[in-house]
Structures are given as structure tokens and as C-alpha cells.
Amino acid sequence: MSAMDQELVWLAWTGLHMTPWKLIGLTGAALFGARWLVQFVASRRARRPVIPRLFWYMSLAGSLMALSYFIFSSKQDAVGVVQNLLPAFTAAYSLYLDIRHRREQAATGADAPAHPVR
Questions:
Q1: Which of 4, 16, 32, 84 has the fewest CB atoms inside 10 Å of its own CB, making it the most exposed?
Q2: How many of the other CB atoms lie within 10 Å of CB of 70?
Q3: Running DSSP on this structure, what letter comes out for residue 8?
Q4: Cα–Cα separations (whole angstroms), residue 7 to 13, 26, 74, 105
């Protein structure tokens, strides 16, 4: 058994069997879920639906962390791999499009949005 699959003794007081891989997976799931809070706050500030760049960073990081848990931990669950592979690709592509779009806007001197959200 690898060190990443061994129980973290310092978390034994919680009564939960927690390994480093499980912490990575749970952190990824938390990031992936919390991105909706970021989107909600950004949309509320802009008073219209917006998806800030932070949403895509959180999507990508959360998907990759959860994906690594399902691939590299002792879990090795194919359902978890498939469940996180497509969102990781989609988030990476959307982040690429957002960065490219903003660079093009800056290069053409297009006006900044009325409510910049990052």
C-alpha cells in the first residue's frame, strides 16, 4: 500500500478513514461544487448571468483533483474517471476560449465590460 493510501493518523479523532488521496478527491469535489457560488455572486453583482474566469479555474482544478483521486488512489473507479474527464476537458477548453477572447478584445481596443468580473 502506498503512503497516499494510508490513513492519516492525525485525522483519526474525526472517526473518518481519511487518506491523502481522499483529501485530494474531497477538495476537488468541494472546488467543483463551490464554483457555482462564485458564479452566483458574479451574476448577482453584474445583475445578469455571467461566468467569471475563476469559475473555469475552479472547474478545471476540481475536475483534475477528483480525476486524480479516481485514477491513482486504491479506488481506481472507472465511473469516477468518466464522470470527471469530460468536465475537465470542457473547463480547460472554456478557459482557453475566455483567455483568447479577452486577449483579442485587448488587442482591438474593445471597450471593457460595464461590470468586469474575474
A1: 16
A2: 21
A3: -
A4: 12, 15, 12, 50
Select from 84, 78, 82 the least CA-distant residue to 64. 84
Could you tell me the three cell numbers for 47? 445583475
Cell of residue 41, nine digits: 455572486
43, 49 in Cβ contact below 8 A? yes
pLDDT of 44-101, one tens digit each?
999 999 999 999 999 999 999 999 999 998 878 889 999 999 999 999 999 999 999 9
Where b means 16+ CB within 10 Å and e means fewer, 34-68 reads ebeebbeebbeeeeeebbbbebbbbbbbbbbbbbb
Task: Report CA Rg, the chain.
Answer: 18
Cell, residue 79: 465511473
116 has pLDDT over 60: no
SS3 53: helix
Q: Looking at residue 15, what is its pLDDT?
A: 78
